[in-house]
Design goal:
- The chain is of the alpha+beta class.
- The chain folds into 2 domains: 80 residues, no CATH class; 124 residues, Immunoglobulin-like (Sandwich).
- Strands 1, 3, 6, 9, 10, 11 and 12 form a 7-stranded antiparallel β-sheet that branches.
- The longest helix has 40 residues.
- The N terminus is likely disordered.
Length: 224
């Protein structure tokens, strides 16, 4: 609906405006069904007998009334639908808690005595290098993973460094590449994390993952 200014009870098209003069300090109001009916009645009562409202003009005003009525009904229906969808989304979100999500991320928080599962997006068949880097930029683990073909290739870091010692808990980054020298190519990495809880934000579902924090559902590639 549109908020417009004018005075009811005048000749011509009363729908050119409605409400009180803003200079008088009175707030404007939006037209509703009752307003349209009132204005149409007042117009018929106060029209100039020498210049009566013609049929085309009257039908046009009826069409405006029908449009406003339809918009109000549609807004009510859309509001009810949005409420149903939000409730359904909440129920679906609850079933995700406790599962494991594979997300587009290379940083992770390693818990003491734990390991990490993930995937590398291979662009072709062949060996790939995987490096685990700690918060200071030092490589703590180097691994080789063979890709049988282009596509997603699983990998696992057992949480130990190159010497076989358990890496301390903290934040790490996983890097993957294929080729060597000038032909080296960085590859996309995905890591898996436990879904602790799910939040419903204005932007949509947000998964709260152990060791990764909050990530939007759009970054999730697989839930298992």
């Amino acid at each position: 609906m549109t908020t417009i200014n004018g005075t009811a009870g005048t000749t011509g098209n009363p729908y050119a405006g409605y409400g009180l003069d803003a200079s008088a300090g009175t707030k404007k109001k939006a037209l509703g069904q009752a307003d349209f009916l009132h204005l149409m009645t007042e117009q018929l009562k106060n029209q100039d007998p020498l210049k009566p409202l013609d049929n085309a003009q009257f039908l046009g005003q009826l069409a405006q009334f029908s449009t406003v009525q339809g918009i109000e009904q549609m807004n009510s229906a859309m509001g009810a639908m949005a409420s149903v969808m939000e409730n359904d989304q909440a129920l679906r979100a609850a079933t995700l808690v406790g599962h494991e999500a594979l997300v587009d991320a290379s940083s992770l928080a390693l818990a003491s005595g734990k390991g990490v599962n993930g995937e590398i997006v291979a662009t072709s068949a062949g060996p790939m290098r995987v490096e685990v880097v700690d918060g200071s930029g030092q490589v703590v683990r180097r691994m080789s993973v063979d890709a049988p073909a282009a596509g997603n290739v699983a990998f696992r870091w057992d949480g130990r460094d190159d010497g076989g010692n358990a890496a301390p808990a903290g934040t790490y980054t996983v890097r993957a590449s294929a080729g060597s020298g000038q032909d080296a190519q960085a590859l996309a990495v995905r890591v898996a994390a436990h879904i602790d809880s799910v939040s419903i934000e204005a932007s949509g579902l947000v998964l709260n993952l152990a060791g990764l924090g909050s990530v939007p559902l759009s970054t999730v590639r697989r839930i298992g």
